[in-house]
Amino acid sequence: MARGLAAVSLENDDGVDVKTQTLAKLEALADNVDMALASRKAHGYLLRAVKSWNKGRVARTAQLALDAINADPENATAYHVLAIALEKMGHLYKALVTYEKAYQLSPDDLDIVINLGQLAGKFDMKDAAEKLYRTYISKRPDSPLGYNNLANVFSSRNQIAEAIDLLKFAINRLPTEAILWNSVATILAEEGRMEESVIFYREAIRLSPDCTRYYHNLGYALMHLEKIEEAIALYNEALNHVRDPFERYESIYSRGICSLQIGQLENGFKDYEIRNNQRFRGHTYYMLKTPEWQGESLAGKTVLAVGEQGLGDEIMFASILPDVMRAVGDNGLVQVAVEPRLVPLFKRSFPEAHVGAYDDRKLVEKDGNKEVRFFPSIRGQNAPDYYFSLGTGLMYFRKTLDDFPGKAYLVPDPVRVASFRERLHAGGEVPLIGICWRSMMLSNKRGKYYSCLDQWGPILKTPGVRFVNLQYGDCEKELAEAEALHGIRIERVDGHDLTKDIDGNAALSAALDLVISAPTSVAATAASVGVNTWFMVNSASWPQLGTDHYPWYPRTSVFKPEKPFDWPQIIAGVADALRDYSAAF
């Protein structure tokens, strides 16, 4: 649902230092004239490429590297520099092919080996990456990068014991290499073993006190342990040491998330704005000539409110739209651009607004691929005076917890609500409980953030209730296995597409008595139409804003463990509460 902190990952360390070293070596060779003419000419282009890189002119770097290749077609370094630039620009397949060419020309250049392995990993070519990293380790056994990156391959395969054993071996050999201690901590954190990870992160900081990334990672672990003040102090310390602007943005964003998690809304939403920086991860360019709203009076104005970050966020942040309509007044106009699946629901919920869909596309430019958002409903005389992202509006309309009205703000189709209710209650007048247990975007590393349905036995065996599936995506196998394992029945609503028909989901949720869900768009939809919604979270989540519920909605409860990712404890708590709920129904 809401975009969270960038998860710590061994991938963050893959090849970073090697790329810097590769370019620095070229400058060190500037005075070397003992080479063939073609090589000297190529080297001249490459020196200019390095200067362009240092100025942030990545496309120019790529062009100069290509000029070097034209001057000396057998120059492995030229291909290496071109590959680095292509990778930075987002042309990953071209970068992979170019790294491979560099490797063919110079198989003993270990900088190429490590960078090629890193990119192969991004293409899920795990076996190839493992082979390259083992080659690197065999030829450079006193470098930590090979061990770090090979451990990442093991971790991505869920071979956790192998990854930790490899890193322990490396630490015994290279005990002062901070990156290895950080890598062990990261694997522990990815496994939910936050308290253990803190020990290793602190040692990494002791060994390398100027590394921004280690402070950031320790802050991430402490945030999950709900030691928020300590985490904020660490993000501030990270900012004192930052060199890479991308790391600066991440630390500011993470500090903002921490502030929001303890209810410091003013500081939190201010830092949260860093996500709109064009160099922040996952940034989307809005194809608008309209000025961005920065808190000016909206009275009598036409303003465009743009959804962002995903269905769950667009639904949750839409709670400010009634405030926006009051701000523009009778002489103003609110335009809303949302994900296409939300348009019918939003049109019904905000009839005074002009609701349309945005159109997201990938734009391929010489400087790299860009995610761009078009607004086909905003044309000519409909052009707004201002635009803003819904999340940005929080900074102006939600300055304190008292600014959250705690009312349902989305309106389901009453005809479909009645139809769903009639169909479902045909099986008897007992509490109808909707369930959703995970996001559709699931990977090994994200899996710990969600429970598995086969773990839900204590909940699903609750007497006197009926369960209705709200899980979107391909989940029939999970449903069948859970039914067989626990000897229960989970209702499916035939003919309803839970992935595509969000308006239908709102109506289906409104036909239920209670929804139990992970923090997904399903939970946001149910809560926004006023359904009693229980959120199952792996640890305290920032949308709680320092409370024991979700202030955005009228009726919510949160179930979280004493220690992060302790799903059995969460499930036991939900089961106990559901028995009480059923008995009192």
Characteristics of this structure?
585 residues; 13 strands; six-stranded parallel beta sheet; globular; four-stranded parallel beta sheet; alpha/beta
Q: Can you walk me through this structure?
A:
It is a single chain. This protein has 585 residues and is an alpha/beta fold. 51% of the residues lie in helices and 10% in strands. It has helices at residues 16-28, 37-54, 58-71, 76-88, 92-105, 110-122, 126-139, 144-156, 160-173, 178-190, 194-207, 212-224, 228-241, 245-261, 265-272, 311-317, 321-328, 343-349, 390-397, 414-425, 457-460, 476-486, 502-510, 521-528, 567-584; strands at 284-286, 302-306, 333-338, 354-357, 359-365, 368-374, 386-389, 432-436, 466-469, 490-491, 514-517, 533-536, 556-559. A 6-stranded parallel β-sheet has the order 10-9-8-11-12-13. Strands 4-3-2-7 form a 4-stranded parallel β-sheet. Strand 5 (359-365) and strand 6 form a beta hairpin. Helix 1 (16-28) packs across helix 2 and helix 20 crosses helix 23 (502-510). The chain starts with 15 loop residues before the first helix and ends with a helix. Mean pLDDT is 90; it is low at 10-16.
